[in-house]
Amino acid sequence: MKPYRRLSPLTPVVRSFIFVAAAVTATWRDMIRGDLGPFGWVLLVLLVLGAIYGAASWLRTKYWIESDELRVDTGVISRQSRRIRIDRLQGIDIVQPFVARLFGLAELRMDVAGGSAREGSLAFLTLSDARELKDVLLARRDAVRTDDSPSAPAVAPGSRRILARVDLGRLIASVLLSPESVALVLTALAFSSLFAFTGEWLGFSALLPVIGGILLVQFRKLAGNYGFTVSESDAGMQVRRGLFDLSSQTIALARMQGLVVTEPLLWRSLGWARLDVSIAGYSTDDGSGGPAASTVLPVGDRRTVLWLARHMLDGVDPDQVALTGPPRQARFAAPIGWRFMAAGAGPQIIVSREGWFTRRTHVVPHARVQSLRITQGPWQRRLGLADLHVDSPPGPVNAVVRNRSTDDVRRILEREVVVGRAARSGGPSGIG
Asked: What is the pLDDT of residue 155?
């Protein structure tokens, strides 16, 4: 067995920090008086037992890299051995929760094809160890995929070039002008007017939990996207963000399946937009309820967002694709939305746009199209209309050519099948 390594010895402290802080807060008055009491002694015993278990768990947790896999052995009572194939690594992120940052530690999160987020996680390492292990794993992965020597040394990361930053003022304004904030203000005004008219202000207390929940979600967005920076290095695009929990994410452009530009109504008057992507095998939600991992830029001027989109699409400009709307009979299927629906295809990409209050432009390269589906509701059948769905991996991208005539939809599908096959084989991908 190759030499193993352990997590940081401060790992048990970080994991139990909240519990220890709560226990000290609950008993500090008794500790000052020198009289813990029954409750204090119970907490003290639990703390000692927890410390013993944490130390044993740290001692029994080992990891090391073999020729083509990362092996992690854990467990005190029940032993577990996880083997993560290096060639199945999709992305590796470095995350620093607030408490871990206080101790200079970080968590290494690995997205594994076909695996869960918990399967590919090492918490906690020193920040330098986390960065070193990330570089080693990425170098081994690339070596394995190219049939080079699996024991090739890690390649030192090159210099990083800053592509975009989000300043705090624009971030705060974007949260205040978001559809959720607008809905919150309108709801509060409507119910306040109703309660003022009826004189039943006690009913307002029922809205406080809802208002508090929305405010908490908005604050989490603000804190999660604080200091948002997009840069580029040899490993790919790097995204760093976070006020309390610091996250460093790598986006491999070779596995990008599509992107979406989002423009809420109030943002459009300011020329702002948001950029998200879908990455093959990359989870878009880590379960923390924070900002999505698919976000490339949470807010920026539209020119910067489109520049980033072109950069990720290898120079292809989505704005240069001619978009056409549905026929006039589509107004009976979507009385309001039909005016804002448009779609088109260029030599390398297919684009769809929809939405009035929040306009979204979905872009999918022909070579990344997973499948094509034609759907038709009962009312659409009466109108001779249908939708064409351009399927891609789970994520924010959802390109749909909506409410076109059935003949047009079939013609677009047949043409996209030919173009997609040519794009995947490296042949000509133009559309006649």
From this structure: 42
For residue 200 the two structure tokens come to 């039943």
Plot region of 170 (φ>0 → left; ψ -120 to 50 → alpha; else → beta): alpha
pLDDT in the model for residue 413: 95
Instruction: Return the pLDDT at 75.
Output: 81
Q: What is the pLDDT of residue 289?
A: 46
Cα 65 to Cα 77: distance, rounded to the nearest angstrom:
24
Query: Cα angle at 240 between 11 and 159, to 5 degrees?
Result: 105
Residue found by looking up tokens 């530690």 in the block: 105
Residues in contact with 408: Cβ distance below 8 Å, sequence separation at least 6, in sequence order: none
Question: What b/e string do you get for 266-302 counting C-beta neighbours within 10 Å, with b at 16 or more?
Answer: bbeeeebbbbbbbbbbbbbebeeebbebbbbbbbbeb
Classify residue 75 as left (phi > 0), alpha (psi -120 to 50) or beta: left
**What's the average pLDDT block by block, 10 residues per block, for the chain (432 residues)?**
82 82 67 66 77 87 86 84 84 88 90 62 90 86 63 49 94 92 83 74 69 85 93 83 88 87 94 92 52 86 95 93 94 93 95 94 94 94 95 88 95 94 69 34
Contact 296, 278 (CB under 8 A): no
Cα–Cα separations (whole angstroms), residue 275 to 94, 184, 294, 300, 306: 21, 24, 9, 9, 9
Angle at 309 between CA 305 and CA 311, to 5 degrees: 115
Residue 409's nearest CA partner among 335, 327, 337, 349 is: 327
Domains annotated for the chain, with CATH where assigned, are 11-145 (2.30.29), 162-241+252-315 (no CATH), 321-432 (2.30.29)
